[in-house]
Design brief:
Rossmann fold, Elongation Factor Tu (Ef-tu), domain 3, 16 strands, binds nicotinamide-adenine-dinucleotide, 3 domains, four-stranded antiparallel beta sheet, seven-stranded mixed beta sheet, 30% helix, binds FE2/S2 (inorganic) cluster, alpha/beta
C-alpha cells in the first residue's frame, strides 16, 4: 500500500509503499518489476531507498509513457497491482577501493542514491558525487545527497543552477579538484553512460553502469533485456543490472530501445 507520494521535480514522482519482504532482502542496486493494472505493461524500476524501521520501499520515476502516467495517478492508500523483486545483483566493489566517483544524470540519480548511501555510510569510503540535470527544475535528491557525499558537484545544461555543463564536465572538474578515483559508477540515460564510459576509458578510470532496458519476466526467460557485452549475450535482469561499462555495447542497447518507441507513441496517442 502506498503511504507517501510526492512530485519531486518536473514530471518526476516519489512513492513510498509498505513491503516488509522487499525491505528484508534489499541490496543496493536491485530493482523491481511493477504492474500498475492487471493487464498492464511490466516496467522495471530500481529501488531508490528503503526505510527498514517502517518496512517502506521508495521508487522514483519520471512520467515517460502510458504506464508511468498510470503509476503517477495512484495516491496514498492505493496499491500497486503487482510488485516483483528485489531482482538483480548488487555491485561488489573491487578490492582496495577507497575513493569512488558517483555520477548521476537526470532521473538516473534515483538508482544512484542507494549506491552513494552504501559507499559513504555503510562502507565508509570516500564518495564524491557529480549530478547533472537539464535545468534546475529537474534536480532530484540533492539535499539528501549533500548530507552523505564527501563532495557534491551540481551541473545544469543551461547553467540555471550549479556549474554550467554536462556530467562529463563534472567528472573532469572532480578529478582536477581531487585527483584520481579508484572507480566511477555512472547512472543515467544510455547516451550519457556511453559518453561517460568513452571519457573514462581515455582517463583509465574503471566505470560501472546500471542498465534499465525493456524487461518482461525479469528471470532470464523472455530475452527482452538481452544485449551484447564484450561480444557475448548477457541478460540485464539476471546478470545485472550493474555492468563494467567498458564492455557494454551501448549502440546495441540503444537500437533495441528505439524499437519500442513506436509502440509507446501509439499507446500515448
Ligand atoms: P536527461 O536527458 O535530462 O540527461 C540528464 C543529464 O545527463 C544531462 O543534464 C547531462 O548532464 C547528462 N547527459 C545527457 N546526455 C549527455 C551526453 N550526450 N553527454 C554528456 N552528458 C549527458 O536525462 P533524463 O531525461 O532524466 O533521462 C531519462 C532517461 O534515463 C530515460 O531514457 C530512462 O530510461 C533513463 N534512465 C536510466 C536509468 C538507469 O538505471 N540507467 C534509470 C532511470 C532512467
Ligand atoms: Fe526477460 Fe530479462 S526481462 S530475459
Amino acid at each position: 500500500m502506498i503511504v507517501k507520494k510526492d512530485k519531486i521535480a518536473d514530471n518526476t514522482y516519489s512513492i513510498w509503499f509498505y513491503h516488509p519482504e522487499i525491505c528484508n532482502h534489499f541490496m543496493a542496486g536491485q530493482f523491481l518489476i511493477l504492474m500498475v493494472t492487471e493487464n498492464g505493461e511490466r516496467i522495471p524500476l530500481t529501488i531508490a531507498d528503503i526505510d527498514k524501521n517502517n518496512s517502506l520501499v521508495r521508487i522514483i520515476f519520471q512520467v515517460v509513457g502510458y504506464t508511468t502516467k498510470l503509476l503517477s495517478e495512484l495516491n496514498v492508500n492505493d496499491s500497486i497491482y503487482s510488485v516483483l523483486g528485489p531482482l538483480g545483483n548488487a555491485l561488489k566493489l573491487p578490492e582496495n577501493t577507497k575513493k569512488v566517483l558517483l555520477v548521476g544524470g537526470g532521473v538516473g540519480v534515483a538508482p544512484l542514491y542507494p549506491k552513494i548511501k552504501e559507499i559513504s555510510i555503510h562502507l565508509k569510503l570516500t564518495a564524491d558525487v557529480v549530478i547533472g540535470a537539464r535545468n534546475i527544475n529537474l534536480f532530484i535528491l540533492t539535499d539528501e545527497i549533500e548530507k552523505i557525499a564527501n563532495k557534491l558537484y551540481l551541473f545544469t545544461d543551461d547553467g540555471s543552477s550549479g556549474h554550467k555543463g554536462l556530467v562529463t564536465d563534472g567528472i573532469k572538474k572532480a578529478i582536477e579538484d581531487n585527483g584520481n578515483y579508484d572507480i566511477c559508477i555512472a547512472i543515467g540515460p544510455l547516451i550519457m553512460m556511453k559518453v561517460v564510459v568513452e571519457l573514462n576509458k581515455s582517463l583509465n578510470l574503471p566505470t560501472y553502469v546500471s542498465l534499465n532496458p525493456i524487461m518482461l519476466d525479469g528471470t532470464g526467460m523472455c530475452g527482452g533485456c538481452r544485449f551484447l557485452y564484450d561480444n557475448e549475450v548477457k541478460f540485464v535482469c539476471v546478470d545485472g543490472p550493474i555492468f563494467d561499462g567498458f564492455k557494454v555495447n551501448f549502440d546495441d542497447l540503444m537500437k533495441k530501445n528505439a524499437q519500442y518507441k513506436e509502440y509507446e507513441c501509439k499507446l500515448n496517442s
